[in-house]
């Protein structure tokens, strides 16, 4: 009798445990459905709205920082779109990481073609670490950013971040503010994108800065749209990543990913108010960055976009999504390149939030299998029918999300969408597997890094000593200088200004990579 009672109790406990898991999975299933609905609704409300252009003269100036690391087939056309923006006051600050004659020639041709657009060119080199010296030479004075370490300013507009936001998107490493960096005496800049932008950031003359990756093209009214979103309580406006209409199956796969799963999660999370910012196109109040010591303060991290947005939010400003998605238009793309990029992004998310390890459960096919098992156990429904209906509804909702994000007809047929959608869905499990089981190293902008907690990075270099930092060459636009510089005069003046170390650099071309 005792043995039978013990067996009955164990059976009851197992049944209660299974029921609890089933109801938790049903709750997760309902949450996924809510994400679909909210993503579609917010996309309908937000995307492709047409703002009024009646007060162009009253718009504040914007400094556009373009970090460049190489060239591809679409670079010229992409950069050209930034010279044709319908906006009254803006400047373009080009940052060339290493001396590259062909890349510099592309920039100079555009600057000569559009002399009325204020622009500057900065040519420098990348070092693995930069020391923040208190006493510097006059030749490198502009290279060291002044730190704003006023505790009163630091605490201005700050507010506590709620526990649920910390769980969703905060890493384990705390961000070092400007005063703490000043006390340390040095700042190790591991992020090559941050290092590349430093001279341009210091020379920026307007209160708003737009950080825009090299692989983006921009519609003529996009900048105006982003600035109109920058209301009095907003500190950062960001574009949701999307892609241009590109030829080939790889272009279709990328468009399907960024217009379905990525768009759904990106829009819903931003609607809820959680920090979900991709830094490929961000308009930021410069005062927010100056308050913590400038861009240099974020040089520890590979995911600098997350920490910049986190700092802006901590100061009490709102984060807003622009109504026009970012148009990625890199000239070099393939399915394998996209997969490598997704693995890198997944590794970064793993170090920002523990919830990244649950991401495989929110994919279409994994959630369909779980839905079929749970409903069969609870209601004795046919598991295959439930799973098939789940996949079909998911497929239709993803197609609607993509059409909303596109804002017009798709560049491929419904059949090609279905094939690209299937490739995206099944490849996600390979991406998670490689990210979860692979090493903590990533390759980014031609370099290899080992990720630490909070996306702190350590560069893995074959050289024993880092190369010393070299002063950047500044070339101002014809409209702001007394004499116009031609391409030939630039090539003649580059080497003496930058020094012998720059002249010894090879102009090896790297393909431009997005964040």
UniProtKB/TrEMBL annotation:
Keywords: Glycosyltransferase, Membrane, Transferase, Transmembrane, Transmembrane helix. GO terms for molecular function: ceramide glucosyltransferase activity. One of its GO terms (biological process) is glucosylceramide biosynthetic process. Residues 472-515 have a biased composition (Low complexity). The keyword ATP-binding does not apply. It is found in: Membrane. Its EC number is 2.4.1.80. Its main location: membrane. Residues 459-515 are annotated as: Disordered. It is a multi-pass membrane protein. InterPro entries: Ceramide_glucosylTrfase (IPR025993), Nucleotide-diphossugar_trans (IPR029044). Pathway: Sphingolipid metabolism; Lipid metabolism; sphingolipid metabolism. It comes from the Eukaryota. The chain crosses the membrane at residues 16-45. GO terms for cellular component: membrane. Pfam families: Glyco_transf_21 (PF13506). Belongs to the glycosyltransferase 2 family. This is ceramide glucosyltransferase.
């Amino acid at each position: 009798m005792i043995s039978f009672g013990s067996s009955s109790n164990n059976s009851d406990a197992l049944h209660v445990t299974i029921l609890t898991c089933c109801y938790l999975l049903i709750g997760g299933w309902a949450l996924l459905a809510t994400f679909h609905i909210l993503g579609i609704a917010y996309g309908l409300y937000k995307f492709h709205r047409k703002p009024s252009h009646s007060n162009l003269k009253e718009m504040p100036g914007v400094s556009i920082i373009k970090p460049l690391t190489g060239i591809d087939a679409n670079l010229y056309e992409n950069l050209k779109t930034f010279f044709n923006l319908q906006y009254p006051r803006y400047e373009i600050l080009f940052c060339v990481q290493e001396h590259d004659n062909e890349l510099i020639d592309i920039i100079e041709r555009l600057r000569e073609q559009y002399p009325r657009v204020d622009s500057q060119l900065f040519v420098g080199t990348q070092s693995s670490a930069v020391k923040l010296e208190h006493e510097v030479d006059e030749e490198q004075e502009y290279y060291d950013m002044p730190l704003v370490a006023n505790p009163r300013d630091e605490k201005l507009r700050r507010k506590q971040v709620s526990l649920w936001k910390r769980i969703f998107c905060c890493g384990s490493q705390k961000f070092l503010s400007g005063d703490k960096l000043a006390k340390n005496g040095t700042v190790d800049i591991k992020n090559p994108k941050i290092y590349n932008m430093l001279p341009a950031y210091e020379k920026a003359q307007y209160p708003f800065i737009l950080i825009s990756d090299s692989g983006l093209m921009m519609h003529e009214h996009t900048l105006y749209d982003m600035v109109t979103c920058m209301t009095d309580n907003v500190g950062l406006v960001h574009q949701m990543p999307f892609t241009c209409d590109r030829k080939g199956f790889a272009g279709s796969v990328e468009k399907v990913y960024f217009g379905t799963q990525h768009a759904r999660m990106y829009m819903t999370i931003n609607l809820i108010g959680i920090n979900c910012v991709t830094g490929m196109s961000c308009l930021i109040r410069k005062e927010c960055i100056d308050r913590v010591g400038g861009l240099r303060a974020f040089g520890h991290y590979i995911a600098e976009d997350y920490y910049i947005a986190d700092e802006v939010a901590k100061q009490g400003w709102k984060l807003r999504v622009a109504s026009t998605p970012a148009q990625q238009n890199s000239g070099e793309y393939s399915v394998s390149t996209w997969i490598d990029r997704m693995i890198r992004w997944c590794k970064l998310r793993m170090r920002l939030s523990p919830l990244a390890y649950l991401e495989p459960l929110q994919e279409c096919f994994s959630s369909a299998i779980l839905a079929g098992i749970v409903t069969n156990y609870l209601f004795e429904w046919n598991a295959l029918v439930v799973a098939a209906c789940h996949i079909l509804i998911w497929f239709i909702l993803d197609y609607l999300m993509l059409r909303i994000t596109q804002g017009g007809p798709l560049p491929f047929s419904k059949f090609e969408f279905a094939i690209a959608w299937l490739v995206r869905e099944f490849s996600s499990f390979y991406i998670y597997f490689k990210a979860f089981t692979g090493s903590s190293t990533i390759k980014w902008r031609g370099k290899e890094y080992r990720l630490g907690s909070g996306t702190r990075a350590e560069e893995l270099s074959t050289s024993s000593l880092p190369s010393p930092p070299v002063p950047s060459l500044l070339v101002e636009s014809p409209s702001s200088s007394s004499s116009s510089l031609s391409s030939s005069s630039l090539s003649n003046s580059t080497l003496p200004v930058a020094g012998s170390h720059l002249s010894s650099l090879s102009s090896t071309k790297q393909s431009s990579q997005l964040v």
